[in-house]
Amino acid sequence: MLAPGGALVHLSDVKTEPRSVDGLPHPAVPYEAIANLVRDYLGPARRAGRGVLTQCTPGDEATMFSMSFSAPHLFGPRRADFEADLRRLLREASAPGRFSERVPSTEVFVWSAGTGPG
């Protein structure tokens, strides 16, 4: 489907590689505990904008209020309570408030018209 001389580049992170924080200076972001806290406040169905994601999705996101599934307006009058509980959870995981994270490697696939993946 590529025009002559055209190319397609596909970039993605490697989903299968281990991403331990071993050897890094701070503890890992407590993603599972954060996801549980969001579920405690908002229920098991992940939000998507103004709707919900009925099939749900895995939670690897860190900045809670910037994500559509946990945007500030979804907490309504419980927003301050959620924020206080989130801050407490993060302090318990790392008193100085610093976390380490190992980002995944990136895969790059390039297809040129007539040459296939390379």
Estimate the helix proportion, in percent. 10-25%
Count of strand segments: 5
Give the amount of beta strand, in percent.
15-25%
Radius of gyration: 19 Å
Order of helices and strands: EHEEHEE
- Structural category is alpha+beta
Structure keywords:
flat; 2 helices; alpha+beta; three-stranded antiparallel sheet; 118 residues; 5 strands
How do the helices and strands line up, and which of them pair or pack?
Blueprint: E1 7-13, H1 31-42, E2 46-48, E3 51-53, H2 79-93, E4 106-112, E5 116-117
Antiparallel strand pairs: 1-4, 2-3, 4-5
Helix pairs in contact: 1-2
Fold and architecture overview:
The protein has 118 residues and is an alpha+beta fold. It has two domains: 1-17 and 103-118, no CATH class; 26-99. It contains two helices and five strands; from the N terminus they run E-H-E-E-H-E-E. It has a three-stranded antiparallel sheet with strand order 1-4-5, with no helix packed on it. The longest helix is centred in the last third of the chain and has 15 residues, at 79-93. It is flat and about 60 Å long. The relative contact order is 0.29.
